[in-house]
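Hello,

I think I submitted the calcium ion job twice by accident. Can you confirm which output corresponds to this input? Input:
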Amino acid sequence: MTRILVVEDEPTLRQLLVENLVYEGYQVEAVSDGSPALAAHEGKRCDLIVLDLMLPTMDGFQVLKLLRERRDAVPVLMLTARGAELDRVQGLSLGADDYLVKPFSILELVARIKAILRRTRPLERPLVLRSGPFRFDLPQLLAWKEEKPLDLTPREFRILEILIHHPGRTLSRQELLLQAWESDARPTARTVDVHVAKLRKKLGEDDDHIWIATVGGEGYRWTTHVEPEG
Ligand code: CA
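Support: Only one job matched these inputs. Its output is below.
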C-alpha cells in the first residue's frame, strides 16, 4: 500500500488532506512540523511526502534539504501559501518533485500525487508479451510463433526485445548497437543489419507479413501491436 506523509501545521487543511488521501486508498500519516516529519519518515519510510513550506519550527525547505543531503530521493510535493516565484524556484532546486500554490483544489492535489508516483515508480514490465502470432517469454529468452518455438540466439532475442518494447517507433542502428551489444564489442551498423536479416528469416517474414520494417536510412521498427499476456 502506498504510504503518504502529510506535513501541514494548519489543522483544518491537514484534516482535509488526510481524509481525502485515505479516501483515495492511500495509507496516510500526518504531522504538523518538520522534525516530527523526519522522525516519522525515519521510523516508517513513506512513498511520498506532501510538505507544507511554512511550518512552526523547521520549515519545508529545511526538511527537503536534509532529506536530499541524506540522499533520500523520496518524492516531495511542496505546498506553498506565498506562491512567490522565489519559493517555487528554491523548492524545485532543492529537489522537490512538484509544488502547489494554496489555495488549491483537492482534485488537483490528488492528480499531482498520482502523476509524481507514476513518474517516480514506473510500472513493472510484464514478463510475457504477445504480438501478432508471436509470444515472448522475456526472462527465459524464449519466443514462439503460433506456439512453435523459434530458434533464436541470445543476441537476436535481445534485438527483438528492444524492438518490441517500442512498437511503432523507429530505432536507429546506433540505438540498437548501444542496447544490444556490450560497449567493448564495437560492432558496426552493418552488424546490426546482418543480425536483423537473420532474425527476419527466423520470424518467417514474407511480402505479406513484415514484422520488422526497414525505415529508409534510419533503422528498424516493430510493426505490430504488443500486449502483455494474461
Ligand atoms: Ca503552514
